[in-house]
Design brief:
The protein has one helix spanning 165-168, and strands at 2-6, 9-10, 18-19, 26-32, 38-45, 51-55, 65-74, 83-90, 98-104, 110-111, 116-124, 134-143, 155-156, 173-176, 179-182, 195-202, 208-213, 227-236, 242-252, 256-262, 275-281, 300-304, 307-311. By secondary structure, it is an all-beta fold. The strands form eight sheets. It has a five-stranded mixed beta sheet with strand order 10-19-18-12-16, with no helix packed on it. It has a four-stranded antiparallel beta sheet with strand order 5-4-7-8, with no helix packed on it.
């Protein structure tokens, strides 16, 4: 371990300049491990410019964790605060003995009306499955947005007015043709908080654990907007090595999307507001032959308690 430092004397009176230390001064050091056991101690001479360079060889038996280095200036009388403390970590590298991979077992597209299965597999680098090993899952679900490809002029989901962008917090982005688009909010907010659930299991003889996910809320209702689901699996072997892997899924509320557009966002009282609607599949292909019901309403907003509230 290498530690470098400089020692200066600060005078707070007069011009308050940093001054050099007596060239005969030394720096004493003490190293303690995470249990307070003393590992090393010694003294270092200062260079011509008041610097020191320590090269410390820690013993192999040192306890892992947060260790400390105490430095004390010696040979300079009449000074206060001549000690300082520095913390560092003692860690041990363990060569990975196995790897963990996760994958969805269900076919895309994923729909909230159908359970989805995801699998995690542990396999030794030397060959062979990691059988009968604990598998811990952390599954996070976040409401997100999706726009079918080819219909950029339409709004899908809940339209957020552009003037709400600064205060509404809906500038996170959306899923569309070609992937995820950040810092853009063309459609489908709002974005709510993420929910996280934990699951446990044990790998089978092939080193795999399967987790079936349902998307119902605690009251049994299904989401009416798409959600982004990330499942992280952590598998631990007999040597207490733990490795993780994660997979993400975009789960749709239905296999069809309804998009709306209008030529204007403001009209005068008494003027008509023309709307156009389109029904597409997840892949963006237009769907014909079905029925579509539209409902219009008037919503008045007021600023109450430092936030906007709607009244139908």
């Amino acid at each position: 371990m290498r530690v470098k430092g400089w020692v200066r004397r600060l005078t707070l009176s007069g011009d308050a300049q940093l001054k050099a230390i007596d060239p005969d001064a030394t720096v004493g050091y003490v190293v303690n491990d995470s249990y307070g056991n003393e590992l090393l101690q010694g003294t270092a001479n200062l260079g011509a410019l008041g610097g020191f360079d320590l090269e410390l060889q820690l013993p192999d038996t040192a306890n892992l964790g947060a260790a400390s280095l105490m430095l004390t200036l010696n040979g300079e009388s009449g000074l206060e605060g001549t000690s300082t403390w520095h913390q560092f970590q003692i860690e041990e590298y363990r060569r990975p003995e196995f790897e963990v991979t996760t994958r969805p077992e269900s076919d895309e597209p994923f729909l909230s009306t159908q359970p989805a299965t995801i699998a995690a597999t542990g396999e030794y680098y030397a060959g062979g499955p990691l059988a009968n090993a604990p598998a811990n899952w952390s599954v996070s679900t976040t409401p997100t947005t999706y726009a079918p490809p080819g219909w950029a002029e339409f709004t899908f989901g809940i339209w957020i007015p552009w003037w709400f962008g600064e205060f509404g917090g809906y500038d996170d982005g959306y899923y569309g043709e070609g992937g995820y688009y950040g810092d853009v909010a063309p459609c489908c907010g709002p974005i709510d908080d993420t929910t996280v659930k934990q699951y446990t299991g044990v790998t089978d003889g092939t080193g795999t654990h399967y987790l079936q996910l349902g998307f119902e809320a605690t009251d049994g209702t299904l989401p009416d907007l798409p959600v982004a689901v990330t499942a992280q699996a952590t598998i631990t072997d007999v040597n207490r090595q733990a490795w993780s892997s994660s997979s993400s899924m975009l789960v749709h509320a239905a296999d069809r999307y309804v998009g709306l557009r209008s030529s204007r966002t403001f009209v005068r009282q008494g003027d008509p507001l023309e709307m156009q609607a389109v029904v597409t599949g997840i892949d963006g292909e237009a769907i014909s032959g079905g029925s579509l019901e539209g409902v219009a309403g008037r919503v008045e907003s007021s600023f109450v308690g430092c936030e906007w509230a709607d009244a139908g």
